[in-house]
Design a protein that fits this description.
Chain B: InterPro entries: CcmF_C (IPR032523), Cyt_c_assembly (IPR002541), Cyt_c_biogenesis (IPR003567), Cyt_c_biogenesis_CcmF (IPR003568). The complex is a heterodimer of chains A (about 150) and B (about 725). Chain A is an all-alpha fold and about 150 residues long. Chain A is built from 6 helices and no strands. The chains are: A mainly alpha (about 150), B alpha+beta (about 725).
Chain lengths: ~150, ~725
Amino acid sequence: MMARLLLILCLIAAPVFAVQPDEVLSDPVLEERARALSDDLRCLVCRNENIDESNADLARDLRILVRERLVAGDSDEQVMDFVVNRYGEYVLLRPTMTGSNMILWVSGPIMLLFALIIAFVYLRGRQTETSEASLNEDEKKRLAELLKD
Amino acid sequence: MPITWFMITELGHFALILAFAVAIVQMIVPLVGASYNRRDWMAVAEPAATAQFLLTGFAFAALTYAFVVSDFSLQLVTLNSHTAKPMLYKITGVWGNHEGSMLLWVLILTLFGAMAAWFGGGLPPTLRARVLAVQSAVAVAFFAFIIFTSNPFIRMAVPPFDGQDLNPLLQDPGLAFHPPFLYLGYVGLSMSFSFAVAALIEGRVDAAWGRWVRPWTLAAWVFLTIGIALGSWWAYYELGWGGFWFWDPVENASFMPWLIAAALLHSAIVVEKREALKSWTILLAILAFGFSLIGAFIVRSGVLTSVHAFANDPERGVYLLIITAIFMGGALVLFAIRASAMEAKGVFSLVSRESALVINNVLLAVSCFIVFIGTMWPLVADLLFDRKLSVGPPFFNQAFTPFMVLLAIAIPFGSLLPWKRGRMEKIMPLLLPALIISFVLLILAVVIEAGLSIRIPIYVAIIAMILFLWQRETLEQLSKFIIPAFILGVSLIALVFTIQTGQSVLGPLGLALGAWVVFAAITELWQRSGKSGARLRRLAGLPRADWGKAVAHAGFGITIFGVAGLMAWQQEDIRVAQIGDRFDVGIHEIELRNVQRAEGPNYITTMAEMIVYRNGRQVEVLRPEKRFYPVANMPTTEAAIKNGILRDVYLVIGDPQANGGWAVRTYIKPFANWIWAGSIIMALGGGLSLSDRRHRIGAGARKTRVPNAVPAE
């Protein structure tokens, strides 16, 4: 594999650009899977660019690597595991939902819940004048229930 | 004589230091004057603000002059300019670097300060003195930052013969004017901050304060919107594959203040109209500028790696962090002490415009929080958990998008609900047309995408129209059930469609959502203009703020549709083409006619000539380029784009291949322009609202001013 990479790197003078015609797999199903995987893989030397968008040589290496694994018959998970094993967690654009990363994933929903509760409490507090009027809705029912007992 | 321009630089440097001194005076004297109610001390603020602006303006002009005449004895000019560079980019190169952009930053800061001094005549004198003093305190911090860590006027001992040129990516009209707009936005939020801190010192927030702070926030938000749209548009055509948003730390740095500013200008309405949400609005005003400062830190410290970053200088980063900590810490402590004193007056029910605006604030603030935590997470994970990881577009798309969807669903309800107390039963019938239109569009899009006959949606539309016109009353009575029925229907269609075709429903859903927001905005204007004749006259007579609101909301809907449409329906074709090859991409045919080399003023280019055909007819000749800038030793891609309302054809020329062909990439980008059109419409709406006479600074101040305002101390 290294030999092939080296050959390719020698043939193509820098700069190269995003996905090259010679990289595209002939099997459209596999190519589509490669594209889907690429969305979540980071070009290691760029900013938040995935490897399909990147012009860097390293991104090209990764694109070829992903396709080689797919052609070899790996499942999507196996390909991702292989890449992460080799390049580390840094390569993933979508952080895994494991360990401390759970803070990242759940803090948004928790914050939303928190904000909604505060907002609700505040809004209820603001309707003091109308609270009498709203007695006919829920509170009336509750009042009826209380009176029944 | 060389002496002259030599001196202009020195005078500029001197003016900058003088402005720093004036800023220190303006920070202290009016503040002391306000607390002892001494008019003469407070009166210092106004001329000082003007002087600060003029001095900074002179310094900026001096630096610009050095760039224009290519004075390579200035280190900054040497590092960022070149004699062969076109004049436009010599001028825009002034802010295409860290030091120069900081000078532009304080220039705008002092401009806002001066404008508050010039147009703030209607403000209570103590509030005005305090606003100007706080604004000047911000200026002091940034003057010190420039003079001590990022001085643009540093000379070189041995001036070189020529400069090292500006980063070629920045030599572009889109990017040249992207920073000034962003800074106008970032720095504009400093006014909201100054008003908030001044009000906290004053100890009073009332309806008048809400009215004064709104135009500044609105202006800042409009500029931010334009700046972000320009940057996104630039990324689209310049980076060579048509991406428009990367969730890059620097983009997020401009997006967070935008979100908070959007929340702030909505909550300030509640303060103005209903005297509620006061302390929350103050907090937002503080945070909005806080995110601007954090943005400056992110961009300039290089802690979060990004291609936009100017300088990876930890020392500057530390200084900016200190500035952020001082201003945020100080303001938040003041807030903690004083916020409880601001009692709300307005009373309203759970279903009301006020509640809707609170929901708007919740969604915007939490979405901003998600962008913030996603942006900072790599840093946090590295420092605390020793994990080196990335947070990229897949995370943000997943975690952030739902908030914009919820926002879009909620906007029409919120904007139609009345103040104080509303009833859903009353506004649902008004929204019925918008609901039906978006439903029909959804079905239309799904049917077209699934490749089915277009007859079905036409029948649905006709039936819906007949039902609507004939049984309007019944429908309106049933409107309570229409929303649940609609949601059920949409989910069913989405489910069946995804299972049947395996395609994403993103496009159709985005179309329906965008249409919902746009048509609800139209409904609102229709509704406001009354039931009987002379509607046009009444429409024209509506306050500009009402127009602004409807236009801005419609722009948001259009942007949502553009984003969804582009992401769902774009096509891509990558191939090796020989000269003379013709190939199909979607409904177009592309021919690679010729590739040749040419020379530009400061670059070498490989330019292809490509023809776009549709139905066998030539529609456009496009010339995508690959440029190489020898001085900066950098290649760039210049995509060629045929812009269209329904789709862009986006062509990129790649490398020559071993067999004599060229790598050619063709993208079909549907509805791409709707994204920026929507953004510009949003900004236009903001501008319309800004021009409403109610928002002119000081308007109505005399009515609400309390005589003999007593200082809070």
